Amino acid sequence: MILDYVLRGASLPILTVVGVAFGALLSGTVLVESVFAWPGLGTYAYNSAANLDLPGIMGVGLVVGVIYLLINFVVDLLYGVLDPRVRIA
User: Fold this and answer.
1) SS3 labels along the chain
2) CA triplet 21, 23, 29: central angle to 5 degrees?
3) 77, pLDDT greater than 80
4) C-alpha closest to that of 48 among 63, 31, 60
5) Positive or negative CA dihedral for 13, 16, 18, 23?
């Protein structure tokens, strides 16, 4: 019973932190993919930066930026689902 009240009040800050944490996860892909030799966006970004491939660097920046914007948009939509006071009139 108390857990319901606590989760209701703490759901918006938790959702905000989870949404911002996805940005950190996107920036950490370069390190993780370099250490474990996994092919992916981080490896492509690293190779593009090492070879001074400007269109590759710009493309990775654009893709990461669009993904981050979409995640923040979904977080904003979930605000309205979790708390009806946040909805636009």
Assistant:
1) CHHHHHHHHHHHHHHHHHHHHHHHHHHCHHHHHHHHCCCCHHHHHHHHHHCCCHHHHHHHHHHHHHHHHHHHHHHHHHHHHHCHHHCCC
2) 105
3) yes
4) 60
5) negative
Residue type at 29? Answer: T
Give residue-wise pLDDT tens across range 18-51. 988 988 888 788 888 888 888 988 889 889 999 9
Report CA dihedral (47, 50, 51, 55) to the nearest 10 degrees: 70
Tokens representing 25 are: 């996860």
C-alpha torsion sign, points 52, 56, 61, 64: negative
